[in-house]
Amino acid sequence: MEPRWSYKSNVWPDWCPGCGNFGILTALLKALEELSLDPSQTVIVSGIGCSGKTPHFVNVNGVHTLHGRAIPFATGIKLANPGLKVIVHGGDGDLLGIGAGHFVALGRRNIDVTVILHDNGVYGLTKGQASPTLPLKARTKSLAKPNIQQPVNPVLLALSSGYTFVARGYAFDGAYLKNLIKMAVQHRGAAFIDVLQPCITFNDVYTADFYRKAVYKLESDPGWDPVVKTSEEASVKLMRAVEKSLEWGDRIPVGVFYVNPHVSTFEERLGERLRKYPVQNPSNTPIESAGKPVLSQEAFEKMFKEFIVRVSGTQGR
Amino acid sequence: MGGSLKEVGILLGGPQGSGIETSMWILSRVLVSKGYGVIADREYFSNITGRHSYIQMLASSVKPPRSLKYPVEILASMDAETVFTHFTDISEGGILIYDVNTSSRRIDEIPSMEDATRERVARILSDKNVEPSVESVVKYLERDKRILPLGLDFSALLKTLSEQYRIDARALSRFLSGIIVSSVAVVLGLSEEAVVQGFEQQFGERKHLVEQNTALYRLVRDALSNHYGAVRLDEPGFSMEKAMVVTGNDVVAIAKIVAGVRYQSYYPITPAADESFLLERYDNIVDETGEVVGSVVVVQTEDEIAAVNSAIGAALTGARASTTTSGPGFDLMVEGLSWAGMNEVPLVITYYQRGGPSTGQPTRGSQSDLFNAVFAGHGEFARVVLSSSDHLEAFYDTIEAFNIAEKYQVPVIHLLDKFLANTVAVMPVPDLGGVGIERGVLAKGGPGYKRFSLESLISPRAFIGARDTVMWYTGDEHDEHGHIAEDPEIRVKMYSKRIEKLNLIQRELPLERKLRLHGPGSPDYLVVGWGSVKGVVLDAIEYFSEKGLRMAYLDVKLLWPFPSEEFLKITSGLPDSRILAVEHSYGVNIAELVSMSTGRRIVKRVSKYTGRPIMLDELVKGLEEIVSGRRERVVLTYGA
Ligand SMILES: Cc1ncc(C[n+]2csc(CCOP(=O)(O)OP(=O)(O)O)c2C)c(N)n1
Ligand code: SF4
């Protein structure tokens, strides 16, 4: 069947030839196509870096924002129009360095947004400095000295921040990554995919060759089941996911680490407070009629009666 | 105090957290219900409990007051610190209400007092040969200043009340505000009925509090029976049927609801946070039948960076969106501000100035962020900076800020300050008939839609989420579709389009949104200022006109784009030497802004940067110094 929409924009991707970002883009395009998402109801929000350019290459709404700030932009977009599908793309410097606070906040809130981390261990666009996921003492070819800082573990951070869907993919296993993206986008709540992304220009440690040898699939363990069936089960499954997230080196797991569908989303919590929110959202609530406020004088005075004082005058004081 | 007065100044003081603010609300409403105009400024430390806080009020029978004056007719003190800190603020013949249990307190026994303040007050007392104890201060006031001390036994009153109502001893301190309200009401001769109404409005559903406070009022009235109506206000001479009693924070929040704001983000900071608190209380907007017509999503974000950027995100979907902050938070928002400028996003930032730099004076007022609002951000882009000079203006300006933002697709900074934010004032109930909502040029979108079309200066705006429409935004320079473009020709077209909107804004905004001239058309002197100095300057001008000196006030409402042509026109008959500027800052920056925008040089400046509001009396003296030619720059310092 012909896809209803064409998702590839006609902007030329100016990534270095061979970059892992191409694999992520292809998987994303394929996922959008298979999900048949309406481009006008889909938004890709990115930060700054090589990965930040992703929205321009995709034919859905694109918002290319500030370094580290894609998540706050996405938060405003999603809460103002919860009908939109919102997907964030950012680098490891972007989401886990300058934007780490926002990364944690999205998990805590469990907003229905998908976050895709282009995890290449370096700051690509500023020419290869160590990123927050590069291990201590690692020395990529662009570094003058070995890395002096400890890395963060993106999967572990996502698990402990409250993301209710946590996965890892590999940029050059397109079919597999595409499925992860589909699952993440369909998940109700904050979803995170750590994508191992070779940067062929600056990272000669985490190369495609390195990953090809190390990566294995979680489900190759026959007992692996990351899905929380009842909310009581959550802590057990979370602990198992945490344990798995610590594996790194010769063997690196990819796949779904944790899924918990039992946590309410931020939008659902808002809907409980705001009577109109579930049906009418900030982006489409009428705010005027014929150029006048929707609030009538009478409604205004009723609504704010605690601030209004009737003046009886001084007679009989 | 013989005869009756046109206006009465009242000062209420006590430890932070003891109910001083509650007293202010109740008294303000009681006075307004009796037909008087009221203004009340709240001064407090950055502290939750224990530090000295006070409220300075003015009640007027002739008009809604717009400035404060010293000395005051009535000082009501909850504690010894208030007596020491404010005994010089009572006018001759005025009244001191105090707790007799504090009589023996000495100044060096008050731990909450800052050393510098203690030393300053001790110095004043020793100059006057007064022992540093409450008792001696009271005697001095009575003997040398003809001030009537009204000592009340606070603990005895509370004991009687607790016996009558079996109130737990620990809960009794909640009734201190009742003593303050009652004693001031008795001295002013306000009826029991009015006071009870005030309690009712304050305590609402909590009927027992109304009853208990009413009982307390009677106890106080009995104790002060000889002084009932000792200070008489004239019969009110202006008529209002109903009025609003609000703080500046309240007014802006209420106006945002009228304006149709549907998304507000914030990160807690004084003095801005109360605005979002209020919005959150009213997040279900109801019509006259109680039906919900819409809702406001209020989000407390993880920081100011998230606050501004999430508001931008919401605005892209078509929601009217805003965020609110003060200096330190605004600094964090600046990168987002530039992004909004680059992407022509209608974003409103409500910016309440407080004393800087850094955390400076977190709970005090200032106007020292003028340049921060006007110039913050990298690169050049169009932004609008509006200021409001009083509560009612703030109401209409808030709505206008959103109209301007959407009509011209620019970020708008609504620049206010702590004085306005925390001042309680009476204002007429706004007339919504005069309020318009303008959303600007909108587009339906559709295939091929160009968000940044160069066909017109203002590109028709479609919202993210519009049917069959796809659009791109980027902080990089971009083409008409919103894709990154570095071609020099596109750069020039897009860059200049964004900035040239300022000319359109200049042309289209009506004069009264830009500059307002108050007072005589061809004055001897012109005072230039903006924001909350207006009230006190207008009162000073009135004072001078009674003395035969014609002064006018030019209130700059539109700070950016600066209305240069109009300014030059209005000031064309006046030499530079006859223009003065007043501001709550060291530099009196408005004079520099005028100078860079118009070439006119204002040298004469009155400045105040203690963090306390300008009092009428000190401003009058300051202006006299300048007009007489004795000085070119005057720094005001009055206030505790
Ligand atoms: C506030 C801010 N600081 C610094 C930069 C410069 N900057 C541009 S790209 C980049 C690094 C991006 O690295 P990463 O997020 O890992 O993405 P990658 O390029 O590797 O995809 C930086 C620091 C910026 N644009 N904004
Ligand atoms: S620098 Fe690295 S991450 Fe960036 S495009 Fe080139 S290969 Fe890809």
UniProtKB/TrEMBL annotation, chain A:
Pyruvate ferredoxin oxidoreductase beta subunit C-terminal domain ranges (all copies): 199-271
Oxidoreductase as UniProt keyword: yes
UniProt entry keywords in alphabetical sequence: Iron, Iron-sulfur, Magnesium, Metal-binding, Oxidoreductase, Thiamine pyrophosphate
Keyword Metal-binding: yes
Subunit: Heterodimer composed of an alpha and a beta subunit.
The enzyme's E.C. designation: 1.2.7.11
Domain Thiamine pyrophosphate enzyme TPP-binding: 48-195
The name this protein goes by in its record: 2-oxoacid oxidoreductase (ferredoxin)
Catalytic activity field: a 2-oxocarboxylate + 2 oxidized [2Fe-2S]-[ferredoxin] + CoA = an acyl-CoA + 2 reduced [2Fe-2S]-[ferredoxin] + CO2 + H(+)
Cofactor field: thiamine diphosphate; [4Fe-4S] cluster; Mg(2+)
CDD domains: TPP_OGFOR
